[in-house]
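Q: Got a minute? One more chain.
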Amino acid sequence: MTGNRWLELGVGLFVVGGLAALAVLAFKVGNLTSVEIADGYRVIARFDNIGQLKVKAPVTLAGVRVGRVTHIEMDDNFYAVVTMTLSGHHKNIPKDTGASIRTAGLLGEQYIALEPGGEEEVLKDGDEITLTQSALVLEKLISQFLYSKAEGATPGKK
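A: Always. Here it is, folded:
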């Protein structure tokens, strides 16, 4: 092989490696690398607003992934009902646990963070988490801030 052929082969391998790295990154961002929870139990939570929360979003407790969002629907009272499957390894989560929707990472991936309560009774399959905090909507916060600044401004002042 000539020197040109080796250079072309090297460039080709570099491009293939770059494409493989992009594919791995795409799977990580899309949460497609994790497997389903086989021995888990399902709990639900109702939220006023879930923002951009999606099915397969992680459910964490103290920063540790303990489950995954498996279904999202709207009930008759216009609340978002989120079904989560929690791992069977975490069967000691108190029944008075709270759930909030949070944002992580640069891409703004949303997930559910559980905050354990102090009750001795634990969550079981089919239970509902009643203490919930909806997602923060950035546009709503900005409009409230601008409205409050406009209210405080006095006409004719510079």
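A: Strands lie at 41-47, 58-61, 64-74, 80-86, 98-104, 109-115, 128-129, 131-133.
Q: Perfect, thanks.
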